[in-house]
Write a structure and sequence with these properties.
Order of helices and strands: HEHEHEHEHEHHEHEHEH
Distance between the termini: 19 Å
Strand content: 15-25%
Bound molecules: pyridoxal-5'-phosphate
Helix content: 40-55%
Radius of gyration: 16 Å
Shape: globular
Structural class: alpha/beta
Number of strands: 8
Length: about 220
Protein backbone atom coordinates (compact mmCIF):
# COMPACT_ATOMS: atom_id res chain seq x y z
CA UNK A 1 0.00 0.00 0.00
CA UNK A 2 2.91 2.37 0.68
CA UNK A 3 3.86 2.65 -3.00
CA UNK A 4 0.30 3.52 -3.94
CA UNK A 5 -0.08 6.23 -1.30
CA UNK A 6 3.40 7.54 -2.04
CA UNK A 7 2.81 7.86 -5.77
CA UNK A 8 -0.64 9.41 -5.26
CA UNK A 9 0.95 12.07 -3.05
CA UNK A 10 3.90 12.52 -5.39
CA UNK A 11 1.62 13.00 -8.41
CA UNK A 12 -0.32 15.66 -6.50
CA UNK A 13 2.86 17.35 -5.19
CA UNK A 14 1.84 16.66 -1.62
CA UNK A 15 4.25 15.71 1.16
CA UNK A 16 3.61 12.29 2.66
CA UNK A 17 4.39 12.01 6.37
CA UNK A 18 4.36 8.33 7.32
CA UNK A 19 2.89 8.13 10.82
CA UNK A 20 4.89 5.46 12.62
CA UNK A 21 3.55 5.84 16.19
CA UNK A 22 3.51 2.53 18.11
CA UNK A 23 5.33 0.81 15.22
CA UNK A 24 8.74 -0.82 15.76
CA UNK A 25 11.95 0.60 14.32
CA UNK A 26 12.24 -2.30 11.85
CA UNK A 27 8.95 -1.25 10.23
CA UNK A 28 10.27 2.29 9.87
CA UNK A 29 13.60 1.04 8.51
CA UNK A 30 11.74 -0.99 5.85
CA UNK A 31 9.95 2.09 4.62
CA UNK A 32 13.17 4.08 4.79
CA UNK A 33 14.77 1.47 2.55
CA UNK A 34 12.01 2.15 0.00
CA UNK A 35 12.95 5.84 0.05
CA UNK A 36 10.60 7.35 2.65
CA UNK A 37 12.31 10.05 4.75
CA UNK A 38 9.48 11.90 6.53
CA UNK A 39 8.03 10.16 9.57
CA UNK A 40 5.53 11.38 12.15
CA UNK A 41 5.13 10.50 15.81
CA UNK A 42 2.64 11.74 18.37
CA UNK A 43 4.64 11.25 21.56
CA UNK A 44 7.88 13.09 22.28
CA UNK A 45 9.59 10.30 24.19
CA UNK A 46 8.83 7.67 21.56
CA UNK A 47 10.03 10.05 18.86
CA UNK A 48 13.29 10.77 20.72
CA UNK A 49 13.97 7.09 21.25
CA UNK A 50 13.36 6.18 17.60
CA UNK A 51 15.56 9.07 16.51
CA UNK A 52 18.56 7.50 18.26
CA UNK A 53 17.97 4.12 16.62
CA UNK A 54 17.34 5.06 13.01
CA UNK A 55 19.22 6.77 10.16
CA UNK A 56 20.13 10.37 10.88
CA UNK A 57 18.69 11.78 7.67
CA UNK A 58 15.12 10.93 8.66
CA UNK A 59 12.98 14.05 8.97
CA UNK A 60 10.98 13.65 12.17
CA UNK A 61 7.59 15.35 12.44
CA UNK A 62 5.95 15.83 15.83
CA UNK A 63 2.20 15.57 15.21
CA UNK A 64 0.67 14.95 18.65
CA UNK A 65 -0.09 17.17 21.61
CA UNK A 66 3.25 18.32 23.03
CA UNK A 67 3.65 19.06 26.72
CA UNK A 68 6.03 21.95 27.39
CA UNK A 69 8.19 19.80 29.67
CA UNK A 70 8.86 17.37 26.77
CA UNK A 71 10.06 19.98 24.26
CA UNK A 72 13.69 19.50 25.35
CA UNK A 73 13.60 15.85 24.26
CA UNK A 74 13.11 16.69 20.59
CA UNK A 75 14.07 20.32 20.02
CA UNK A 76 17.62 19.73 18.83
CA UNK A 77 16.64 17.57 15.85
CA UNK A 78 12.87 17.71 15.15
CA UNK A 79 12.14 18.66 11.53
CA UNK A 80 8.71 20.20 12.11
CA UNK A 81 6.17 20.44 14.93
CA UNK A 82 2.66 20.26 13.45
CA UNK A 83 0.71 20.33 16.69
CA UNK A 84 1.31 23.80 18.10
CA UNK A 85 -2.07 24.24 19.71
CA UNK A 86 -1.50 27.44 21.72
CA UNK A 87 0.59 30.60 21.86
CA UNK A 88 1.92 29.35 25.18
CA UNK A 89 3.35 26.23 23.51
CA UNK A 90 4.78 28.27 20.63
CA UNK A 91 6.56 30.52 23.13
CA UNK A 92 7.95 27.54 25.02
CA UNK A 93 9.24 25.97 21.79
CA UNK A 94 10.76 29.31 20.80
CA UNK A 95 12.62 29.49 24.10
CA UNK A 96 14.10 25.99 23.81
CA UNK A 97 14.94 26.48 20.12
CA UNK A 98 16.88 29.62 20.99
CA UNK A 99 18.99 27.68 23.49
CA UNK A 100 19.93 25.31 20.65
CA UNK A 101 20.46 28.18 18.23
CA UNK A 102 17.80 26.76 15.93
CA UNK A 103 14.83 28.15 14.02
CA UNK A 104 12.29 25.35 14.22
CA UNK A 105 9.52 24.99 11.62
CA UNK A 106 6.07 24.82 13.23
CA UNK A 107 2.45 24.62 12.16
CA UNK A 108 -0.38 26.11 14.17
CA UNK A 109 -3.03 23.53 14.96
CA UNK A 110 -6.51 24.79 14.31
CA UNK A 111 -9.52 23.22 15.95
CA UNK A 112 -11.73 22.15 13.06
CA UNK A 113 -13.50 19.09 14.50
CA UNK A 114 -16.70 19.27 16.48
CA UNK A 115 -15.38 17.01 19.23
CA UNK A 116 -14.54 18.73 22.50
CA UNK A 117 -11.45 16.61 23.07
CA UNK A 118 -9.50 17.81 20.08
CA UNK A 119 -6.63 20.19 20.82
CA UNK A 120 -6.21 23.35 18.85
CA UNK A 121 -6.96 27.01 18.71
CA UNK A 122 -9.53 28.88 16.66
CA UNK A 123 -8.88 31.19 13.74
CA UNK A 124 -9.86 34.11 15.96
CA UNK A 125 -7.39 33.06 18.68
CA UNK A 126 -4.59 33.28 16.13
CA UNK A 127 -5.71 36.65 14.78
CA UNK A 128 -6.03 38.04 18.31
CA UNK A 129 -2.50 36.86 19.18
CA UNK A 130 -0.79 37.62 15.88
CA UNK A 131 1.68 40.14 17.36
CA UNK A 132 2.90 37.62 19.89
CA UNK A 133 3.24 34.88 17.26
CA UNK A 134 5.11 37.20 14.90
CA UNK A 135 7.48 38.22 17.68
CA UNK A 136 8.91 34.70 17.98
CA UNK A 137 12.35 34.62 16.34
CA UNK A 138 13.27 30.96 16.83
CA UNK A 139 10.23 29.36 15.27
CA UNK A 140 9.25 29.56 11.61
CA UNK A 141 5.47 29.48 11.28
CA UNK A 142 5.02 27.51 8.06
CA UNK A 143 1.28 26.95 8.03
CA UNK A 144 -1.66 25.23 9.67
CA UNK A 145 -2.54 21.73 10.79
CA UNK A 146 -5.97 20.29 11.48
CA UNK A 147 -7.60 17.02 12.41
CA UNK A 148 -11.06 16.23 11.15
CA UNK A 149 -13.81 14.72 13.24
CA UNK A 150 -13.39 10.98 13.87
CA UNK A 151 -15.98 9.92 11.32
CA UNK A 152 -16.31 8.33 7.91
CA UNK A 153 -18.86 10.93 6.88
CA UNK A 154 -17.16 12.54 3.88
CA UNK A 155 -19.49 15.55 3.91
CA UNK A 156 -18.49 16.47 7.46
CA UNK A 157 -14.81 15.99 6.71
CA UNK A 158 -15.04 17.96 3.50
CA UNK A 159 -16.63 20.90 5.29
CA UNK A 160 -13.93 20.80 7.98
CA UNK A 161 -11.12 20.67 5.43
CA UNK A 162 -12.67 23.56 3.53
CA UNK A 163 -12.85 25.49 6.78
CA UNK A 164 -9.13 24.89 7.40
CA UNK A 165 -8.20 25.90 3.85
CA UNK A 166 -10.24 29.07 4.14
CA UNK A 167 -8.61 29.98 7.46
CA UNK A 168 -5.22 29.36 5.85
CA UNK A 169 -6.05 31.63 2.91
CA UNK A 170 -7.26 34.41 5.20
CA UNK A 171 -4.15 34.24 7.38
CA UNK A 172 -1.83 34.07 4.38
CA UNK A 173 -3.39 37.16 2.86
CA UNK A 174 -3.93 38.85 6.20
CA UNK A 175 -2.04 38.75 9.48
CA UNK A 176 0.67 36.36 8.22
CA UNK A 177 1.19 37.98 4.81
CA UNK A 178 4.74 38.91 5.84
CA UNK A 179 5.70 35.27 6.50
CA UNK A 180 7.19 33.98 3.22
CA UNK A 181 7.19 30.36 4.35
CA UNK A 182 3.56 30.27 5.49
CA UNK A 183 2.63 27.74 2.78
CA UNK A 184 1.66 24.42 4.35
CA UNK A 185 -1.69 22.87 5.20
CA UNK A 186 -1.24 19.60 7.09
CA UNK A 187 -4.53 17.73 6.79
CA UNK A 188 -5.63 14.23 5.81
CA UNK A 189 -5.08 10.81 7.37
CA UNK A 190 -5.56 7.20 6.22
CA UNK A 191 -9.31 7.42 5.73
CA UNK A 192 -9.49 10.82 4.10
CA UNK A 193 -6.16 11.79 2.56
CA UNK A 194 -7.50 11.90 -1.00
CA UNK A 195 -10.37 14.11 0.07
CA UNK A 196 -7.92 16.34 1.97
CA UNK A 197 -5.71 16.65 -1.12
CA UNK A 198 -8.76 17.63 -3.19
CA UNK A 199 -9.44 20.35 -0.64
CA UNK A 200 -5.95 21.83 -0.71
CA UNK A 201 -3.77 19.82 1.67
CA UNK A 202 -0.01 20.13 1.14
CA UNK A 203 1.00 17.50 3.71
CA UNK A 204 -0.88 14.33 4.65
CA UNK A 205 -0.22 12.27 7.78
CA UNK A 206 -0.91 8.64 6.95
CA UNK A 207 -0.34 5.81 9.43
CA UNK A 208 -2.49 2.70 9.48
CA UNK A 209 -3.02 2.55 5.72
CA UNK A 210 0.74 2.21 5.28
CA UNK A 211 1.83 0.36 8.40
CA UNK A 212 -1.31 -1.66 9.14
CA UNK A 213 -3.75 -1.19 12.01
CA UNK A 214 -2.37 -0.23 15.42
CA UNK A 215 -3.13 -2.49 18.36
C1 LIG B 1 -2.30 8.75 14.37
C2 LIG B 1 -2.34 10.08 13.71
C3 LIG B 1 -2.44 10.18 12.31
C4 LIG B 1 -2.52 8.98 11.38
O1 LIG B 1 -3.70 8.29 11.57
P1 LIG B 1 -4.10 7.07 10.59
O2 LIG B 1 -5.57 7.02 10.64
O3 LIG B 1 -3.45 5.85 11.16
O4 LIG B 1 -3.58 7.39 9.25
C5 LIG B 1 -2.46 11.45 11.76
N1 LIG B 1 -2.39 12.55 12.52
C6 LIG B 1 -2.29 12.50 13.86
C7 LIG B 1 -2.21 13.76 14.63
C8 LIG B 1 -2.27 11.26 14.49
O5 LIG B 1 -2.17 11.21 15.84
Amino acid sequence: MYQEVQSYCHNNEVQLVAVSKTKPVQAIQSLYDLGQRDFGENRALELAEKYTKLPQDIRWHMIGHLQTNKIKKIISFVHMIHSVDSLHLAEAINKEARKKDRIVPILLQLKIAKEESKYGQTYQDIVDQKEAFLALDNVDIQGLMGMGTFTNDQDILKAEFQNLKQSFDHLKQGVFSELPSFNEISMGMSGDYKLAIDEGSTMVRVGSLIFGARS
